[in-house]
From TrEMBL:
Domain of life: Eukaryota
Protein name per Swiss-Prot or TrEMBL: Strictosidine synthase conserved region domain-containing protein
Location in the cell: Vacuole
Family of the protein in this entry: Belongs to the strictosidine synthase family.
Length: 371
């Protein structure tokens, strides 16, 4: 029976052997993802707000197209009317935004030589930068001097300094998303599912760095509460933001089971925080988060240059001071929104993918009551 013989051999070469090779590769690969805590796998509607705009791209305008290379975070200086943003090429750029986005002026301000992520203004007009590669930086207001404030704590170097907030007494609060993986390898931190992140403070008067919380899951955005009693910080893979009470040194859940994976969180000076989510919860991400095996396969594929981590449906969630969801602006057709900040009647969004800042006039394009 030559035909059967032929097809059996074909079967062995085309499926059985590749299958055995895959198993062997899988066994040999040392990447060892963990199960995530059970509450990270909860999907609930409690974090879905009553008001939704599910077409964020409709009416959106783009600022600095091609000039702002992946502007991750945005800080707004109300006195000068300038937007500061950190780009992937190391530049902290300044943008003078005009009524018409095409009249906006983009200026190369200071290049950190690293990857500026979170930005905040210091008490003396300086710009504090959480630089993924360099650590926490202080850029003087004239842009002439860049000083490294800190890049390690308790003998452990930061590998992915991520976001920063400044308090009225001058103390800086910031996150290191991971001590184990750097910015270029950050997806592996996500896939490994282990807590390598820390929340820390830096006191400029004593120049001491303190670890407030460790073992955080990709500690990302951080924001100071308006009454200055606590911080709110986000842990991306477990879709949760928590409060850290500064005096009491106590942690409390702020909002969990988010409809996406939270990145930066920004207070708007007007009773609300805005939480950006680079991707919504997709079926693939749900599976990945639940099954470490899946994440291991994804990581192995990534090492061979294949991306199996598809992002989809990015958005910005507006919540009140108690963490109650108010409105969600999102769009299936957009990914990698990393920050959302309200300036006047506009929502400005940074991106980890696109070379532009997105802005939406949210009075003209509001979120509506959903069913
Ligand atoms: C801005 O410029 C872009 C590209 O040239 C153009 O498509 C768009 O219509 C302009 N927008 C305004 C508001 O002028
Ligand atoms: C940043 O540097 C400036 C001088 O360039 C200094 O006045 C300011 O106090 C510094 N800020 C911090 C937080 O260290
Ligand atoms: C920082 O990240 C890089 C790349 O992900 C890694 O090789 C290095 O070991 C990390 N540093 C530390 C101190 O673990």
């Amino acid at each position: 029976m030559p035909l059967l013989f032929f097809s059996r051999r074909f079967l062995i070469f085309s499926t059985v052997i590749p299958f055995l090779i895959s198993i062997a590769l899988y066994q040999l690969d040392t990447f060892d993802p963990s199960h995530l805590p059970a509450d990270a796998l909860l999907y609930s509607t409690t974090s879905i707000p009553p008001l939704i705009n599910n077409q964020l791209l409709t009416g959106a305008e783009f600022i600095g197209v091609g000039l702002l290379n992946k502007p991750e975070d945005i800080a707004y200086d109300i006195d000068s009317g300038l937007i500061y943003t950190g780009c992937v090429d190391g530049w902290v750029k300044r943008v003078k935004v005009m009524e018409s986005v095409n009249d906006s002026v983009v200026e190369d301000w200071v290049n950190t030589g690293g990857r500026p992520l979170g930005l905040a203004f210091g008490l003396h007009g300086e710009v504090i930068v959480a630089d993924a590669y360099k650590g926490l930086l202080n850029i003087s207001d004239d842009g002439k001097k860049t000083e490294l404030l800190t890049d390690e704590a308790e003998g452990v170097r930061f590998n992915l300094t991520d976001a920063v907030a400044v308090v009225d007494n001058g103390v800086l609060y910031f996150t290191d998303a991971s001590y184990k993986y750097d910015y270029s390898q950050s997806s592996f931190d996500f896939l490994e599912g282990k807590p390598h992140g820390r929340l820390m403070s830096f006191d400029p008067t004593t120049r001491t760095t303190r670890v407030l919380l460790k073992d955080l899951y990709f500690a990302n955005g951080v924001s100071m509460s308006p009454d200055q009693t606590h911080l709110v910080f986000c842990e991306t893979p477990i879709r949760r933001c928590s409060k850290y009470y500064i005096k009491e040194e106590r942690v409390e859940v702020f909002i969990q089971s988010l409809p996406g994976y939270p990145d930066n969180i920004r207070y708007d000076g007007d009773g609300h925080y805005w939480i950006a989510m680079p991707t919504g919860v997709t079926t693939l991400l749900k599976l990945s988060m639940k099954y470490p095996v899946w994440r291991k396969v994804t990581a192995m594929a990534a090492k061979w240059g294949f991306n199996l981590m598809f992002a989809e449906d990015a958005g910005v969630l507006q919540v009140d001071l108690e963490g109650k969801p108010i409105a969600l602006y999102h769009d299936r057709k957009i990914t990698h929104l990393t920050t959302g900040i309200k300036i006047g009647e506009y929502l400005y969004c940074g991106s980890l993918l696109h070379s532009r800042i997105l802005r939406l006039h949210f009075l003209k394009y509001p979120a509506h009551k959903s069913l």
